Amino acid sequence: MTIAERGVAIVGGGISGLALAFELRRRSPDLAVTVLEQGYTGNGDSSRNVGRIRAMQLTPELTAFALAAQRKHERLSDELRSNTLFWRSGYAWVLYEAEELERMLGLMPMFRSLGMRAPRVITGTAVQRKLRVLEGGETPVGAIVGHDAIGHHDAVLYAYRRACERLGVEIREHATVTEVLIDADRVTGVRTDAGTVAADAVVNAAGGWAGELSSMAGVRIPNVCLRREVFVTEPMQPFMRPAITFYRPMEGWFNQTLRGELVAGATDPSEQPGLDRSSSFRFLGRTGAILLAKAPRLGALRVIRQWAGVYDITPDRLPLVGPVAARPGFIQMNGYSGRGFMQAPYVAELLARWMLSSEMPGELAPFDPNRFVGVDVDDGRALTTDYYRGYSSNRPPR
């Protein structure tokens, strides 16, 4: 895959699209790069996430990539010449069932083999002694405490935007793509409601809209969108570290930010797939009850705002990255399955290198966007009820 004179059109002005534009231009200053965003930069889920950069994952592919992605985030402030507020908050995966603990203990050799700084395993009453915010709540059977990090989504997003502007990337906001232009099966650009952009490569970094844009190019992808809602409390003096996540009875998370706010959320088992970014009072009451059952001390905090975003989920929880074999010139960069903030900067670095050299980096091999062609997979409608589902199933043969 090479890029010719007319350059690249990147659809999606979030962290993923801006990161790719930055990486392309800093490697090829004469390349024409245009970012197209239907709203404002960060309008989608780049400004609707909680900024976790977690290396502890359930599969070797995800863990190895997450470790490299963490290192990329550590470099970002220097590369973008702007503070991205990266900090090693620590991370605790709190386990409430013996089966969960057994599953996580089984991952420890894999973590060590990949060079991860070994997470600490805590069991029994030691969990609440270590994680004092959980005292008085439901008793965990164990926890895996690691050295993971958090970044500030807005700081990263606008650091990328400023860096793109310095490098001469053209950013067109409020430009909705209405058609992917095709000539003799090859993509030649896009038409928007604000004009036409000719390009030898069109990159689909549209997040929750990735399926719609793929359809315009005559390409079907198996991505499913699921809403994730979040609330934020008033700021308080520091009272908790590390960040906490749990997956029983359902997925939930909370951590304190550098400004002292508590950021928290929990999934809804009745959530239906779809591109829904509305936030609800029902979420507030349900999530508050779940968190208070696990951490009663949080009950004194006052919620001051809430929002919603979506996970763009693939059947095997790995993103789609690279050229579409059936549509030359159309490149996928989506399907991060809730890990877009963490993965996108490193994906962008690797994809830019690939696009400019025609040599696929080995790190992107598991993310082949053509891997689901002709494969029957779970459509993702049960994802809200079991986080672990899909990590060992829905994997196409390789």
Brief digest:
The chain is α/β, with parallel strands linked by helices and 398 residues long. The chain has helices at residues 15-27, 60-80, 98-105, 108-113, 126-130, 153-167, 210-216, 281-294, 340-357, and strands at residues 8-11, 33-37, 52-53, 91-95, 120-123, 142-146, 149-150, 170-173, 177-183, 186-192, 195-198, 201-204, 224-233, 243-246, 252-256, 262-266, 303-313, 320-323, 330-334. It has two domains: 1-87 and 148-223 and 316-371 and 380-391, 3-Layer(bba) Sandwich (FAD/NAD(P)-binding domain), CATH 3.50.50; 91-147 and 224-313, 2-Layer Sandwich (D-Amino Acid Oxidase, Chain A, domain 2), CATH 3.30.9.
Task: Explain this structure.
- This protein has 2 domains: about 1-85 and about 150-225 and about 315-370 and about 380-390, FAD/NAD(P)-binding domain (3-Layer(bba) Sandwich); about 90-145 and about 225-315, 2-Layer Sandwich (D-Amino Acid Oxidase, Chain A, domain 2).
- It is about 25% helix and about 25% strand.
- It has helices at about 15-25, 60-80, 100-105, 110-115, 125-130, 155-165, 210-215, 280-295, 340-355; strands at about 10, 35, 50-55, 90-95, 120-125, 140-145, 150, 170-175, 175-185, 185-190, 195-200, 200-205, 225-235, 245, 250-255, 260-265, 305-315, 320-325, 330-335.
- β10 and β11 form a beta hairpin.
- The longest helix has 21 residues, at about 60-80.
- The model has no long low-confidence stretch (mean pLDDT about 90).
